[in-house]
Amino acid sequence: MNKIVIHGARLLSGNVTVSGAKNSIVALMPASILADEVVILEGVPEISDVYALINILQIMGAKIHFTKGVLTIDPRGVKSIPMPSGKINSLRASYYFMGALLGKFGKATVGLPGGCNLGPRPIDLHIKGFEALGAVVFSDKDVMYLRTKKTKLVASHIFMDIVSVGATINIMLAAVKAKGRTIIENAAREPEIIDVATLLNNMGAKVYGAGTNEIRIDGVSKLHGTKHFIIPDRIEAGTYLAIAAAVGRGVTVHNVLYEHLESYISKLEEMGVQMTIREDSITVHPNCDLKMINVKTYPYPGFATDLQQPITPLLLKSYGQGELIDTIYERRIGHISELKRMGANINIDGYRIIMDSPSELKGAEVVASDLRAGASLIVAGLIAKGVTTIYNVEFILRGYDRIIEKLTNLGADIALVDTNNKVKLEERGGR
Ligand code: EPZ
Fold first, then answer.
1. At how many degrees (to 10) do helices 308-317 and 371-383 cross?
2. For the chain, which domains are there?
């Protein structure tokens, strides 16, 4: 298995450009099969989740071409065939094929999703939405079977018990061709939801209110092809902002939208991080003596749960006592034990993560338990004195496009190394 080796405590400077949003592209690709013509997605990140979804789409009969960030999907040969759970459970977002296949064919057989280990990750809200639209859903072992009772789905008024990104998107995918007007109340408001709605509307759908907590969808009979440029990855951007604040002496992060990170940036400013914010870039100025803060995660536009792990090593460099509470995933703590091995003064008290800083981080051998825990260990390794070796890097390469190359260009001493300790070139998509 590959590993990442970092010689830490070096100051970084220069420019880094954020790639397209992972949590957008993993929904846009399944959504493309709803079209009866070719869909072209631009600004696509070269991450392993994209390659996994390309593989699934090809098995379904789509024709795919992917080069230089441009992904061309011809869905005209797609059939609603049973999805191989072996392929499907490699990533949680594969559940979007349920909504897309149900929306297009009125039936779907999909393996239950996999994805990061963040504790229980049910899909009951997705199923509630599909059943409200008139589908019959049952599961046998690790496969979900979804069928419409009538010839096609029928619009419905759906109230989401919990704000759920995935369920909001999945119900949108199923409803765009349903008969009548579907209303989703208490919908999630993440920018990725707006991005999917934009693609669907450019394909001829009628989706109104994406980005608010009430989305209205008027079903249409046909969806045509289109071209769509995906939004920047706000979580990747937030990760580089944390790195720039922790070990930077003047780093500019390009292709970042301030409005996607308002709550996160205000917390960085609360710590004393000095930044210059422009229309699509942010420069983090050298800083020292940062102040510890308290962090609580919330659905968008609150502080993103996906950024609580990457910001933690920066918090550990600051001065004072603080606590972090993840209200979305209380068990999103896979990074804590590894940070403690690096010398962090960080503990778990119930659902609170308590820190007493600054902690002098030292290089160590650590294991990534999930995507953002892995990102947290990279940030910690860049801060720590000595050598940090990170295992299970496949998690990290799922969601960070060319992270080794981008950090090397900023002056980091970081390498992807194979089991024979030979430096590996970071292949596209971490393959
Ligand atoms: C999306 O996951 C993201 N993944 C996650 O990012 C992100 O952490 C999460 O939203 C929250 O923002 C993708 O977009 C592919 P949810 P999703 O449904 O849709 C509960 C990353 O690191 N829930 O918004 O699966 C659930 O357990 C990944 O990029 C139900 O109870 O998350 C959680 O507590 C990790 N029943 C809360 O809702 C359901 O049917 C929010 O989950 C669905 C969710």
1. 20
2. 2-19+232-428 (3.65.10.10), 22-229 (3.65.10.10)
